[in-house]
Predict the structure of Rhodopsin domain-containing protein.
Amino acid sequence: MPSIMALLARDSGDVDIERSVQKWNYACQSLCIITMTIFFGLRVYTRQFILNGFGKEDWACTAAWFLGVCYSITAILMGHYGGGLHLTDVPDEDLIPFSKTVYVTLVMYGPTAYITKFCLLWIMTRVFSPFRKAVIFIYAFMGIMLAYYIPAVIVKIRLCNPISKFWDPNIEGSCMDENAIIMADAVISVTSDLIVLLLPLPLTLSLQMSTKKKMRVIAILGAGGLAVASSIIRLALIVVTAKSKDTTLAFMRVNMLGNAEISIGVICTCLPALSALLKKVLREYSSNKATTSPSDYKMDTLRNQSKTQRSTKQMSVLERESDEDVLMFNAQGNPRIETTVNVDNGHHDNLRSESFGGIGVTRTVDVDVSSAHENRHHGV
């Protein structure tokens, strides 16, 4: 009996209390907030200054980032009120605030997960627009998920009647089975993450491009499916701890995996846009290393090239890179177009090239002024 009394008498600052999960939660949430914000900030910069500015998809990504950050902040508050500790180590006055944070995370998880996956799938509809059946499937899948999450959120909001009974068991009323609802969410999450992971594979593999380029496209588009690892572990943990009475410890572990899943998804929605930023940085780095003025030999070689030779070389470059570039440009969302105009008026010393800023599709146009002038002279 004295040992039990001593256990109950321990306060939250007792050095004997196991706080490892609580500390891991603080570290996990800080990492999630920082990484999501960095990647989202880079996405905003890329869309605003390198690509064509904000679009509808970017506002959806903004909502996903905002909800993801709020979700992590709620998890920090959950840890502050005893999340990650054994139930017997949590002061009585913290139990109701802890349960309130649990309620908030239950309600927030569905909309946050849906908007994040919605952004990833939206990118895929644009990238694989030539695959009509695949696009129809993606839209149908987005609709099915929405048809699940809307009633699921309503059910979780009204989980208890009255709602306050969720965090105060002394209030008269009734509650639905919380574990069953959490389990349903976990199953839907695993299924949808697997689809996001696997969907780009058959579509990309069917394209005519090198294996290396295919892997790069799959890595960018399927990266959001990496959250499937977190969601599978989360589902397994829910099954194992479903009947646990140590709710403050069990739910904190489950919630940390939910945070990881959301954060990975938000980061991956930024990757296609960041591909344009990386390409711009590499291009500027290569330009700085290149010699500013070519040698006389290289200039003479360029001037002696016929228009046909130049056109053939430019076309071969475009053909070699077009498949991957089109996919990446579609993923980035209507990037600016760089146009190069080669004017050949019959005098080699007047050959000039003009570029209009931006990163994206490169279009090359050859204009033969001398031929046009000769045609006009002969009345053609």
Observations:
- The longest helix spans residues 247-289.
- The two ends are 111 Å apart (CA to CA).
- The longest strand covers residues 338-344.
